[in-house]
Specification:
21 strands, 22 helices, H-NOX domain, 6 domains, five-stranded antiparallel beta sheet, alpha+beta, 720 residues
Length: 720
């Protein structure tokens, strides 16, 4: 139970006031430090202390003062102290001591949770109060003494004299309760009211006797005299009662003022938290959010100035961001000041609050002058700071900055409630700042994605759950000719060939129903001008934050040119294979031709031109040479022989090829030769030029399936 808050700081504050009034020479700061209590905590009526704290406070106080009766004396002073506040004023409001003691059991829980009170009346000026120790609590004897002092002091509020107390049963001797029999003297107004009542009764009785004893004239005078005397007593009683009522009304007015101030403070604190929460929900710009927060603090709380500082991107400095109440010179000083977070020797409150995540509440700067550096003292002096609160702004265990307020004109003391309010606000500011940062990062990534999508060479698209386009990038219009507004809202199948509609419907249905992905799917989409473009397509489910499929997202890559190049490459590969095969065959065939040529030469050596077989042998030799030239062309096609450039007559080569050309050109195509007689010779490879001539002629033949005219013309072209 030593760590559970049990006792209101009003109790210790009454000790504090008592010592300041009757023992001002005692250093209460050391006593509070020993007890682990701060001055701003005891000034906060809403703060509670543990059993250990109050025990250590009493121990240090008795050792310092040397008075074992200090607890009872402080208790007698408590009803008159400012610390008792609204509680003592409520007590006075009951008009009589009896009513005050009867109601004290209702007020006591606001002072202590260590025990509870029961009260009963024993007579007009006597009550019995029973203090019952709560389970798990072990109060000390000095607390019983302090309680007796409070009971004695309550009577003094009304009678100006301490109450008399009989205390025969004590929990510190035996049992779990203390019994107090409290008696007090009657108030003057109450005594005189009784005198007044008796005087009127005596006046009536005396008047009746006088009427029978004295003559009429003398009896009338006697009766008037007695009546005036009784009225005088009554008037005096009324005077006393009026004074007591006046005091009571004054106390009620003070009570009302205090309650109104407390209500306003709580209301403004609540509204501040609400406004900051609303601002955090609606404002996603960090600078605007911090300015809004400072404006709310300025409007709702009673501080001269306030500021927010955040760590720089490197986390090495605190940087002033926004504040209120500072003149231009002070604001310039804050902006230029350097608060080094990376210096382990820094002792300034702002740096310590950030690095150690420790709040500061200082009611008097002089109390911390010895704990800060000369540079920090100079900074505080230049800003004329008298008191301040500084709390770290923390998000997920990491310090983001500090929030601080200070007073240099207002003299009101700062208390724990003020600190607690800022300790509640600062994490909310940290969350809001990081939400704004996250939003900015999302916006930046969205802009990056948008820039990437808008400039991508491939089509990027999204669809809704029905399959209608919700977004296409500009590549669609560049590749297919449709404007973006003509695409969005329409279904994908509206743009594909009719033969592919079913296939793509199944693909997109699989995305929506089974969350499947597809990629490397080729499909043809007609261009707006009617031409066809071949695309390699991909698609995947588009999910919302909850993981639900809301459509599809994917890309179309234009592979029309790529596929054409692939076909050309395939054809080239085939031709290369053919060339390789042709080269091998040509070599073998050339060997056969060499043998034929050799045997033919042997036969021709045994014959002459007059021999009837000579013309056949000559034709064999000519055809063999022609076959050799064809083999050479095949080897050139297969890249198996080197090109040999030599001076040659282009007309002669064309005429030589003309005889072969007539055999492959149909009769419906006429072939005309128009060759310049004095044509210059050129340097080239006769075999390859012959192949070029034959290829051009065959292409011309294929271009005239219905017949036509093929003209072959040579001429000299002199290039100057």
């Amino acid at each position: 139970m030593s760590e559970i808050p049990l006792y209101s700081t009003r109790i210790i504050n009454s000790f504090y006031e008592y010592m300041g009034k009757y023992h001002p020479d005692i250093d209460m700061g050391q006593i509070l430090d020993y007890a682990g209590i701060t001055t701003y905590q005891i000034e906060d009526e809403g703060h509670w202390l543990t059993q250990l704290q109050v025990d250590r406070f009493y121990e240090s106080l008795v050792n310092t003062l040397g008075d074992p009766d200090i607890a009872r004396k402080a208790g007698q002073y408590t009803p008159f102290s400012k610390a008792a506040g609204t509680l003592s004023q409520c007590t006075i409001g009951f008009m009589t001591p009896a009513a005050a003691y009867t109601f004290i059991n209702k007020l006591y829980p606001h002072m202590s949770r260590g025990s509870s009170l029961e009260t009963r009346s024993l007579g007009p000026c006597q009550v019995e109060v029973v203090a019952i120790q709560n389970p798990g609590v072990t109060e000390k004897p000095y607390q019983c003494e302090n309680r007796m002092g409070v009971f004695e002091g309550i009577a003094k509020l009304f009678t100006n004299k301490l109450a008399a107390i009989e205390h025969d049963t004590c929990m510190h001797i035996s049992g779990d309760r203390c019994v107090y029999r409290i008696s007090w003297e009657e108030t003057p107004s109450f005594i005189w009211k009784r005198v007044s009542n008796y005087s009127y009764l005596a006046c009536v009785i005396a008047s009746l006797l006088v009427l029978f004893v004295l003559p009429v004239g003398h009896s009338v005078m006697a009766i008037l005299s007695m009546t005036l005397a009784a009225m005088g007593v009554s008037i005096y009683q009324m005077y006393l009662e009026k004074n007591e009522l006046t005091l009571t009304f004054k106390n009620h007015r003070a009570l009302a003022d205090d309650l109104i101030d407390e209500i306003n403070t709580r209301y403004n604190g609540t509204m501040l938290i609400q406004e900051i929460g609303q601002g955090a929900s609606n404002i996603l710009d960090i600078e605007e959010l911090m300015a809004f927060t400072m404006e709310a603090v300025k409007k709702r709380l009673n501080f001269d100035r306030g500021l927010i500082m955040l760590a720089n991107q490197e986390g090495t400095r605190l940087v002033y961001k926004v504040g209120y109440g500072y003149n231009p010179a002070d604001e310039a000083l804050l902006k230029s000041a350097e608060f080094h977070l990376d210096n382990p020797k820094s002792r300034g409150p702002f740096v310590v609050a950030f690095n150690k995540q420790k709040p500061f509440l200082v009611n008097d700067i002089r109390n911390i002058e010895r704990d800060i550096s000369e540079r920090t003292r100079d900074f505080i002096s230049r800003l004329h700071i008298e008191s301040f609160i500084c709390v770290p702004i923390i998000y997920e265990g990491k310090s983001e900055g500090i929030l601080a307020v200070d007073n240099h004109r207002l003299k009101r003391p700062l208390n724990q409630s003020d600190l607690n309010l800022f300790l509640g606000i600062a994490p909310q500011i940290g969350i809001s700042i990081n939400n704004a940062r996250s939003y900015q990062r999302i916006r930046e990534r969205e802009e990056q994605f948008r820039a990437l999508a808008e400039n991508a060479p491939d089509i990027i698209y999204t669809t809704d759950i029905t399959g209608a386009f919700t977004y296409v990038n500009p590549a669609w219009e560049r590749l297919l000719g449709h404007a973006r507004e003509d695409v969005c809202g329409k279904y994908f199948v509206a743009f594909v060939k009719q033969d592919d509609v079913r296939r793509f419907r199944e693909l997109f249905k699989d995305i929506h129903d089974n969350r499947r992905h597809f990629s490397d799917i080729d499909g043809t989409i007609p261009h707006k001008n009617g031409s066809e473009r071949l695309f390699n397509m991909s698609g995947a489910p588009n999910l919302d934050a909850a993981g639900n499929v809301i459509g599809a997202v994917g890309t179309f890559r234009d592979v029309t040119k790529q596929r054409s190049l692939e076909k050309q490459l395939l054809h080239a590969s085939k031709m290369e294979a053919v060339g390789t095969l042709t080269g091998g065959i040509a070599h073998d065939f050339n060997n056969v031709l060499q043998a034929i040529s050799g045997y033919n030469q042997l036969l021709m050596m045994k014959k002459d031109e007059s021999d009837p077989d000579w013309k056949y042998l000559a034709n064999i030799d000519r055809l063999n040479q022609r076959a050799t030239d064809l083999i050479k062309q095949l080897l050139i096609f297969s890249r198996k022989v080197d090109i040999k450039l030599q001076a040659m007559d282009l007309n002669s080569e064309i005429k030589e090829c003309y005889s072969l050309l007539k055999e492959i050109i149909p009769r419906m195509i006429s072939v005309d030769l128009d060759m310049e007689a004095s044509l210059w010779k050129i340097k080239g490879d006769p075999a390859q030029l012959g192949q070029v001539f034959m290829n051009l002629s065959v292409n011309a033949r294929d271009a005239m399936p219905e017949g036509g005219r093929l003209q072959i013309k040579t001429s000299t072209f002199a290039h100057v």
